[in-house]
């Protein structure tokens, strides 16, 4: 199956990080050798470039000029351009998994990813992982970096949260599970502060959740929860759905993309305690 690691390596190849004018080659070989030995720097000498080599400034210009054959397409992200420029200035970063250790945000959308593999642990500073529109049915939490604060898995095939909740990232603030295959009541027990003590935002929209009372009893343990999306589930068809949630979760600020106004909270006061 397609893994996150494989998708990331394919993306790096697409950026041409190992090819001219990035990476290491005949166009910058002496500069990189001098950096390794640092003898020229210690001697305070300015050496002239050998024939066929280019200065970092010239190489950067080839990347930045929109008419250059080495320029990225206009739909590429600023981060992709920045990564190429960093590799021009420091091509030694291409060795091993150094680049992975520098990445803080990783977005892999609609690339056929099916597996959250162990290679993801190389991203030792990763804070945001977006894996929308993939084919992921199972997430092994042991493969998620502990630094993760945002995990977005919308438009996937996740139907069971047990593996995700075995060792969840302790600092996670947003969990996006919209447009998946979750159905209760067995999944609701995984949505408590025991697993997600710092969760601020939770998207469960457009699944098959039906047990409103059971779900709310679990969500009420999430003391930091401020944003909740449940629209698109069968439980959202219950006539008192919104009022019951507003009164049951007094710390909630936004429900289904709509701010909870003070007058709305007052209107539904006491509804949660009714049979």
From TrEMBL:
Annotated keywords: Leucine-rich repeat, Repeat
GO CC, one annotated term: cytoplasm
Alphabetized Gene3D superfamilies for the sequence: Ribonuclease Inhibitor
Record SUPFAM superfamilies: L domain-like
Keyword flag Repeat: yes
Record-linked PROSITE patterns: LRR
Protein's recorded name: LRC43 protein
